[in-house]
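Let us practice reading a record.
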Amino acid sequence: MTEALLKIGELAARAGVSIRTVDYYTTLGLISPAQRTASNYRLYSPADVDRIHLVQRLEVHGVPLEEITTALNARQADVAAILDRVDTDLQSLQAAADAASPEMQGLLAVIATRVHSLITIALQISPDTLLP
């Protein structure tokens, strides 16, 4: 049985955000209504709750909303290019860590931990969370 679609207020309540946040995320293209009622009210998928939580986790890690929007709306073919960029960035980080002074190694360790957290989050993204 499929879960019923959610009105904007229901989505906001389930996700623990304001209606204004849902509006903003909709405007940015982070979420989109699954359909509209005869009265033109937006109805959202229950999966959008998970998508909002994902956006919030990425924001906490310092990823700008513009980049989150781009990543979540990327077509599957774009994923390879994104992974190549991540690999290149990780190689640069490793080279910097290898050449760093002892004082800088602590900072680079923090950066590496942040990168690891972001990759872990990315690997947890369900294909259902991505827009078609």
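A brief commentary: Residues 8 and 53 are 15 Å apart (CA to CA).
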